Amino acid sequence: MPFSSNGYCKTSMALNLVLSSYKTNRMFLNVPTPVQKICAEQPAHSMVLNTEKFQHVGEEEIAKGKWVKLSKYMYKDQTGAQREWEVVGRCTKNSEKPDCVSTIALLHRLLKYDCMILVKQYRPPLKAFTLELPAGLIDLEETVEDTALRELKEETGYSSAVVKHVSSVTALDPGLSSCTMKIVTVGVDGDSKENEHAMQTLTSDEFIEVLHVPVDQLLKKLNECSEQGMIIDSRVYSFAIGLAMGKKMAHAGDIPHLQGQETFTLKEAVLDG
Questions:
Q1: CB 266 within 8 A of CB 15
Q2: Of 69, 109, 161, 262, which residue has the fewest beta carbons closer than 10 angstroms?
Q3: In this predicted model, what pLDDT tens digit does every residue of 1-12 receive, in sequence order?
Q4: pTM recorded for the entire structure
């Protein structure tokens, strides 16, 4: 395996790229255009969408299984033309909540590399093993934070986790599915008494391997796993690219407050809101 949970480090490395890139890019947010206020600036050559013209007209169920269903959605575009779209959805969907939670779990231990906690499992739709963030469906009575901590405990065995950030609602595969997700960032105290004897609590049909990936080698290790035949979850790979970009930008001076900084602290690494 390309992973090692051992080793000594200076401090947690480039994880703060998410925060750094976020802060840097905020200057470009909330820029009004001649048409309407949107969250980013449009280039002059871009089509301008008339968001008020798009309308969901209705939907028709085509097929339904135990967990997922296939539907046909009817909608109107900005020209007034009615169109159809085939949509995969979850049978458990709750209109008041996102479907599921995915957890960015950062493991901190004395005199060891800060690591991301990832899970390896076989995914039948891909006919392959994947490397993913711990994740799961939100139960009706649960909050997003509750689900993140419960799934982390069940899938990885880790508790003593502190929620650092909860994302807004994100789309999983918007061209195919109606499924939505929130991403929760947590810090895990690997030296706590509970985590010294961590134990997974999997159901009889769950087969999950827990992996520690050093944060400062994340992209390199993911590429090694890919070469071995694993499929990397797009959220994990995008996060790794962001970390690498943030580190490169900081060293190049593109992020002024981090110029010349050799290491990144956990406080800078985790989004606070």
A1: yes
A2: 262
A3: 555 444 434 334
A4: 0.79
